[in-house]
Amino acid sequence: MFYRPEDGHGLPHNPFNAIITPRPIGWISTRDTAGVNNLAPYSFFNGVAYTPPQVMFASTSGKSDQVESKDSVSNIRTTGVFCVNVAEYAMRDAMNASSAALPKEVDEFAHAGLEAAECATIDCPRIAHAPAALECRLTQIVPLLGQDNFLVLGEVVGVHLREDCIKDGRLDVLSFQPLARLGYRDYSHVTELFEMTRPDD
């Protein structure tokens, strides 16, 4: 099968998201200038550089109560900061609840039943019991092709690691089983690992 996206795929559901899998979930927390906390999961998310450490996420739709894009991007645009919380398997229902399209004055932490904690280096909330959280300062917001598509880039300026997830000096992903987004309504979580040594190591 071959298709050009501009012509359509002819399938019952768009296969694009199912092709690019698995994708880590960036659970982005922000705060608006009125002090309202916001929390939303984004599966177009990844780390993009080591030194200095940098991350990205993309927002791909708008909201009727925002001028453009979603609450996360609007808040980051005005405050210049955000936090990336790692979504673990045990928090899957809360993550899903926080994806609801709620009015901008609603606190998704409360809606999803999650405890918020203050970040250490930026004025922003984080999920108190997340396995890891990355405090970020905005570096760029890049408009992408299409309506309300934005790429957000940030420098990581603070890192929280939950103590029970550190084993033998390493962050042990099996201890919290990070969630991954697949295509359609499908998700997965990490339950086993294997190791490979690069040829140059």
TrEMBL record:
GO terms for molecular function: FMN binding; oxidoreductase activity, acting on the CH-NH group of donors, NAD or NADP as acceptor. Transmembrane segments: none annotated. It comes from the Bacteria. Residues 18-173 form the Flavin reductase like domain. SMART domains: Flavin_Reduct. Coiled coil: none annotated. InterPro entries: Flavin_Rdtase-like_dom, Split_barrel_FMN-bd. This is Flavin reductase family protein.
